[in-house]
Amino acid sequence: MSQFSLELNEDQLQIQKWVHDFAENVIRPAAHEWDEREETPWPIIEEAAKIGIYSFDFVANCFGDPAGLLMCLVNEEMSWGDAGIALAIFGTTLGVAGIFANGTPEQIVEWCPQCFGTPDDIKLAAFAVSEPDAGSDVSSLRTRAVYDEAKDEWVLNGTKIWITNGGIADIHVVVASVEPALGSRGQASFIVPPNTPGLSLGQKFKKHGIRASHTGEVILDDVRVPGRCLLGGKEKLDERIAKAREGKRASSQAAMATFEASRPVVGAQAVGIARAAYEYALEYAKERKQFGRAIIENQGIAFKLADMKMRTDAARLLVHRAAWMGRQGKRFEAGEGSMSKLYAGETAVWVTEQAIQILGGYGYVREYPVERWHRDAKIYTIFEGTSEIQRLIISRAISGIHIP
C-alpha cells in the first residue's frame, strides 16, 4: 500500500508550471482588454492551441491523470490568469465531458478531437442543457428529440439558454427530452455536427463577469441529426427508458452525468480566482502605508488575509478530494463533488470581496484587477448548479431523505 501523500508528482508539477507561465505571460496581460471588449479572445485561444494547451491530446492527458488532479491544477492556474479567458479556452471541455460521460468509445474517438480541431483550424464545442424555464430544474427540459425511424434521424426542437460557446461552436452537445413524462430519466444527449441546418445563435448575453467567454442562446428549429449522433446509442436509450417506465432506477441521467464530472473542475476555477485575489491583496497590504506603517501590520488587515488564505486552501483540498474520488470511481456518498463546487464558489466571492475591502477605493476601480475578479467569482455560485442546489444535493446525500 502506498504511503499517504499530498505532494504532487513531477509530471503534475511540470505541467502546472508550464500552464502557470502561460497564464502569467499571455493571459494576465490581455485580461483587462478582453473583459472590456466582451468578445471571444481568438488570439489567445490560437496561442494556447499553438503550444498545445488547447488540444484534445492535452485534455485527454489531463483527464487520464491517475490521481485525477491534473485537470483541476490546470484550471486553477488558467483562472488565476483570468477566468473569462480561461473559460473561453476550456469551455470546449464541457462538450467533451458530455461526450465522455454519455458516449460510446467509438463516439468519443470520432467526435472529441473534432471539438478542438487543429492549431491551423481551431474548432469550439458547447454543452447545451439550460433553458428559459429549466435552469436548476433540469428535469423540466422542453427541448424535444423525436426519432424519425424511416430516415434513422432525430429531430430536435427547442431553445437553450446561458450556453458557453452557444451558437458559435462547431459542435453542440444538446440534452433533450425523448420521453417528457419520465422527466430527467427520459432525456438523452445528442451531438449536433458542424453546419447542421436549423441550429442558430439567438441572443448573445452581456454579462456581469467572465466577459471574455461567449454565452449565448441556442435555437433548435427542426434540427435533424443522424441516428449515430445519439450519445450512447439507441439500444442503450431504449433499455434505460424501459427501466424508467417500470419504475426502476436508471444508472445515469444525461445532464447529471456531465455535471458530476465537471464540478470539481469548476471548483478549481473558483480557487484560481480566490488565490489571485488573495495574492494581490497580500502584496498590496505589504506595500501600502497608512499612519506611518504598512497596513498589513494592523490586525484587522492581517487577520483578514489569514482567513483568505485559509479558506482558499480549504477549498482546494475539497476540490482535490472530489477529483481524486471521481478518478478512482468512488461514489460521492456525502455529495463530495457538490461540496467542492459549493465551497470553492462561495469562497471565491468572499475572498475577492475582502480583497476589494483591503484595497479600499483602488479595489473598486477597473484599473485594478480585484473588482474584475469579484465580478468573475459570482458566477461560481450560479452556473453548473446554484449554491442552493448544491446544498440540496449534499443534504439529500447525508440524510438519505428526498428533501424537496
Lateral strand order in the biggest sheet: 4-5-9-8
> How many β-strand runs?
11
Distance between the termini: 42 Å
Query: Any idea what the CATH architecture of the largest domain is?
Result: Up-down Bundle
Contiguous runs where pLDDT drops below 50 for at least 5 residues: none
By helix and strand content, what is the structural category? Answer: alpha+beta
Would you spell out the secondary-structure blueprint of this structure?
Layout: H1 10-37, H2 42-51, H3 56-63, H4 70-81, H5 83-90, H6 92-102, H7 105-116, E1 117-118, E2 121-122, E3 125-128, E4 144-148, E5 153-164, E6 171-177, E7 187-192, E8 199-204, E9 215-226, H8 234-245, H9 254-287, E10 289-290, E11 293-294, H10 299-327, H11 336-359, H12 370-378, H13 387-399
Parallel strand pairs: 3-6
Antiparallel strand pairs: 1-2, 4-5, 5-9, 6-7, 8-9, 10-11
Explain this structure.
- The strands form 4 sheets. A 4-stranded antiparallel β-sheet has the order 4-5-9-8, with no helix packed on it.
- The protein has 13 helices and 11 strands.
- With 404 residues, it is α+β, with helices and mostly antiparallel strands.
- The chain has 3 domains: 113 residues, Orthogonal Bundle (Butyryl-Coa Dehydrogenase, subunit A, domain 1); 121 residues, Butyryl-CoA Dehydrogenase, subunit A, domain 2; 146 residues, Butyryl-CoA Dehydrogenase, subunit A, domain 3, CATH 1.20.140.
